[in-house]
Write a structure and sequence with these properties.
Helix Hairpins, single chain, five-stranded mixed β-sheet, 8 helices, 3 domains, Heat Shock Protein 90, five-stranded antiparallel β-sheet, elongated
């Protein structure tokens, strides 16, 4: 007679619970898609193979209670060597990709082979898991093909852009030369007509210059996308570099009521950069600051703070709508409030490409009708 709460009754309940858990674990073990088996490391005997081994055309009996060297397909792919290596490895877990042939078939299936060493009562075992990665490999191949196709399309696009830009240069140069020659002959006409003709000539030459600038920008974008932009960094005095840019390009050409003020924070250091690329980037941001603000000075602030230097350019102009800021560095993108101002939408895309080449970053903070600040961050030792 077993009394409730007695040690015998508790033992019986624990035994039944353990049996139930074993059944549950066995069911889970045999329904997993991965092929799972264990190896007695000391004896080299295979134990506990799950039903997924049938995916290769084998049965559990083909493997259980056999030495792993006896497996039919092990000699073809040195699979037994992998198990032996994993069993003796000082690493507790390993993972690699292998190809295994199905039984009675020339077809091979890619698997990810993972192992882990564990112990039961100080006896070492090797847990082996084979995960079919056929679909993963298929998707990877499709992605690689898509990337290759995209690369080819980009190369074709850049070749076309380059060819078209060069083809445009010749007729534009001819037109420009023709206008200059006509301008010489206009001098013989009556003064009333000279003014009218030269006004038209000036407009034509202005449009030619705009087209040439556009083609140059398109070529720069194409080179940047194709990673063909020449990059020749040297160490420069950044403060001196910016001072020369400001004086030669702006402060000596604009009225005194609109100037670029340069502020320095931190100890100036030599900075490694490509002077042509950074000149274009800073000049573009400065010209935008003038273009999109009608009054007030522009502030350039250089902050040296190891391991980077930050160059910020702030204006008090029209500002940029918040919804436009995320797309500001995309080619041909322009803010809604700039439609009546000349521009191509390529400048900032080129600027970002040049900053990226330097492993730098560019940020923009703006508020409508109050102004915009662009910040370029460059590593001091790129």
């Amino acid at each position: 007679m077993i009394l409730p709460g007695s040690d015998i009754n508790i033992y019986q309940l624990e035994k039944e619970l353990l049996a139930d858990n074993c059944i549950k674990l066995g069911t889970i073990f045999n329904t997993l898609r991965e092929i799972i088996f264990t190896v007695d490391i000391e004896k080299g005997m295979v134990e506990n193979v799950n039903n997924s081994i049938e995916n290769l055309g084998y049965t559990k009996k083909d493997f259980e209670a056999h030495h792993f060297k006896d497996w039919n397909f092990s000699k073809r792919r040195n699979f037994h060597f992998l198990i032996k290596h994993a069993s003796s490895s000082i690493e507790q877990a390993t993972s690699q990709q292998i190809l295994l042939p199905a039984k009675d078939s020339k077809k091979t299936i890619p698997y990810e082979f993972s192992t882990a060493i564990y112990k039961v009562k100080d006896k070492p075992y090797l847990l082996c898991v084979l995960r079919d990665i056929t679909e993963r490999e298929k998707l990877l191949k499709e992605v690689q093909q898509a990337l290759a196709k995209e690369k080819q399309l980009n190369e074709l696009r850049n070749m076309f852009i380059s060819m078209a830009s060069h083809q445009f240069r010749t007729p534009l140069t001819i037109i420009q030369s023709g206008i200059e020659i006509l301008d010489m002959y206009v001098e013989d006409l009556p003064d009333a007509k000279v003014h009218s003709f030269r006004k038209q000539f000036t407009r034509i030459l202005g449009e030619i210059e705009s087209l040439q600038d556009l083609m140059n920008d398109v070529l720069l974008v194409g080179r940047s996308d194709a990673r063909r932009t020449p990059y020749k960094p040297k160490r420069y005095d950044l403060v001196d570099f910016c001072e020369n840019l400001i004086e030669s390009k702006y402060n000596n050409r604009y009225s005194n009521d609109r100037r670029i003020l340069l502020n320095i924070t931190g100890k100036p250091e030599l900075v490694l950069f490509d002077n042509k690329l950074i000149y274009y980037a800073l000049e573009n941001i400065l010209s935008n600051a003038y273009k999109y603000s009608k009054q007030g000075n522009i502030i350039m602030h250089i902050i040296f703070n190891q391991p980077t230097v930050t160059i910020s350019i702030a204006d008090s102009g029209m500002g940029i709508p918040a919804k436009d800021i995320p797309n500001l560095f995309e080619p041909f993108y322009r803010s809604d409030n700039t439609s009546e101002i000349d521009g191509t939408g390529l400048g900032l895309a080129i600027v970002k490409g040049f900053i990226d080449i330097h492993n730098g970053k560019i940020f923009v903070i703006s508020e409508l009708n109050k102004g915009t600040t662009f910040s370029v961050i460059l590593p001091l030792n790129n």
